[in-house]
Each structure stands twice: as C-alpha cells, then as structure tokens.
Amino acid sequence: MTGISDDEAQFWRLAEPLLDTAAATRSTMMGLPCLRVGGAFFASWDRSNGALLVKLPEAEVDQLVAAGTARPFSPAGRRFRQWASIPPDAGDAWVALLDRALRYVSKVVGS
What we know:
Elements: H1 6-21, E1 24-29, E2 32-37, E3 40-46, E4 51-55, H2 58-67, E5 71-72, E6 83-86, H3 94-109
C-alpha cells in the first residue's frame, strides 16, 4: 500500500484475513482507517498513537482496561464505552481482539 505508514500497513495486514473470510469491508471512521461488518464499525487504527481500536461489549472493555491490556477510547475527552484502545506494545493481542470485535458486531447487526 502506498501513501500510508508502516504501522497502518500493519493494521491492514492483520485485517486482511478478516476481509478474505468474512463480510468485513474497508472504510473510514472519523478520518481513520477502519473495518465494518453489516455497515457497522468494529475496528479501527488510531494514527495519533498507533493503537488498535475495537468495539466490544462494555463489560469486556472494562475488563481489558482493568487488566491493563487496553485504555478507554476517549476522543475529545468523551469516552466511547464499547470501544477499547489497544496500544501498539500489546500487538500480540491484536489478532484475537480483531476477531472478537468482528464476532461481537456481527451478532449485534445480525450479519
């Protein structure tokens, strides 16, 4: 991919299997690269800090934050309760979290 950072290219490399096997599609959310399923966002990559953003049940997000695996996603100071920000140093968890987010949002939208 041209015109993107190595970190963003890594996000797309990790997302590629989801795009190949699921109803996931590429998109943008608030100007960020993201993934959708059934028209709903389930993952994105935050250019400002290199974090993976995933949509999960609020209780699961709270557990990830309490465990130190994630931070709350709070753009402009407003917390998005169903979104977790997974820092780049937790990259080994990204694949599993992308899959969990896809499954969660697929259930919600009925895809």
